[in-house]
Amino acid sequence: MSKIINSIFHVVFLLIAFSSLNFIELIPKRYLPILELLPFFLYILSLILGYRFNRSLVIYSSSIFISCYLYFWFLPHWSTTQHFLALNSLAIIAAVNIALISYYSERGVFTYIGIIRLSLIALFLLIPYWLVNDLSKNYLQMINQVIFPALEVKLVFFKQSALLAILLSMIIISSSFMARSNPFRSAILVSLILCLYALTLPKNHLLSQAVITSFAILLPLISLISESYRMAFIDELTNLPGRRALNETLAKLSNQYVIAMLDVDHFKKFNDTYGHDAGDDVLQLLGGRLKNVTGGGQPFRYGGEEFTIVFPGSGLDDVEEHLEQLRESVANRKFSLRKQERRKKGKSKKSATGRQVNVTISIGYAEPSSRNKTPTQVIKEADKALYKAKKKGRNCISH
In terms of domains, do 201 and 285 share one? Predict the structure, then answer.
């Protein structure tokens, strides 16, 4: 589902980027110089945020796009042959480098590997500049090389060498996105498309190139901000909002609400028997169950095997049925172990693959009262109710 939403967002983003070119004429002339400098402002922002959040891949990709934009400033001063060489070279370099970035892992910005990667990008961009200015016949022949004589493929000014690099790079980036499900991978693919489109614009259309390049740099930035938000507010294991998100939700509550605290029964014993990997699988299962809680409940991972559900605008009687349904849905669900049982007292590991176990939860819930006025106090009261549920025999709810 997240891949579908991500794809829809990028299609809409592309449409907005292309349609924005129609509004350039409406911009007052005094603001046009700012528009030409906008890609540089966004690039500086990419450098700052990329360094601040240790996202070197954002810096690499934005460096490629801003370098292509720098070339646009030189295009009006070059001959037709130089213009042809420069644009085909940029298409190849941008496509190949973005494909490499899609398979890079984060290794820091100013680390040894990070500096090597930046140096390679700079080298790839400077060599064509020298060859274009020098009008090397061998380089011109290489760009014009017909790789597939039987195919007379022509797309704008791109030669077969550039088209092949673009096609292979898009396949590589797409496969990387499908394998890793990382929104950044799809973001740089869309940015590459925008960058290639900017290359097809006439050389005297710097404003249009500035707009398209700005969108190309902006999209990885949006991906960085979105991922940073996710890391800060979403628990990676259960995919539920975490403690910080819970604190923000508690700060917005009115006078009427219910807070439920719950955890997995005998979770420590479960970990000792089946191992922490199987324990993590249980927490993921429970996270999926909690997403389906009814009655307007908002689930959060509180920490460890403890979870919190907030019911804004509800009372104890309103939520009892919904909490009971949740407890039953977990208790009635068979859980198939995918891990191996932990080694015990020198005995060999026994395969637990396919073995089904039952997992139960206990729930305590509370609402504000004269004694417990703040959300923090209500959470403590719900925690006491959870302890009561444990004493009652577990796999039950209490308030």
Answer: no
Structure tokens at 119: 């140096």
Statement to judge: residues 271 and 360 lie in one domain: yes
Residue written as tokens 């006491």? 384
Both 152 and 218 in one domain: the answer is yes
Specify the number of domains making up the chain: 2
Fill in the amino acid letter for 187.
Answer: A
Tokens of 147: 């790789």
Write out pLDDT tens, residues 18-28: 999 999 988 99
- Residues 247, 104, single domain; the answer is no
Q: Based on the domain organization, do 101 and 185 belong to the same domain?
A: yes
H or E element: which one contains 177? helix 160-180
- Structure token digits, residue 276: 């922490």
Check pLDDT > 90 for residue 217: yes
Predicted TM-score (pTM) of the model is 0.74
Token pair of 396 as six digits: 């039950």
Q: At 47, which amino acid appears? A: L
Residue 118 token pair: 């930046």
Domain extent for 154: 2-233
Q: Are residues 215 and 255 in the same domain?
A: no
Residue 354 CA, chain-centre distance (Å), reads 33
Helix axes 206-233, 243-251, angle to 10 degrees: 90
Does residue 60 lie in a domain region? yes
Q: Are residues 93 and 129 in the same domain?
A: yes
Q: Tell me if 275 sits within 8 A of 339, measured CB to CB.
A: yes
First vs last C-alpha separation in the chain: 37
pLDDT category at 348 given cuts 50, 70, 90 is very low
With a CB cutoff of 8 Å and minimum separation 6, the contacts of 275 are: 339, 340, 341, 342
122 lies in the same domain as 13: yes
Q: Is the pLDDT of residue 39 over 70?
A: yes
Q: What is the average pLDDT value for the chain, to the nearest integer?
A: 84
Rounded Cα–Cα distance for residues 158 and 91 (Å):
8
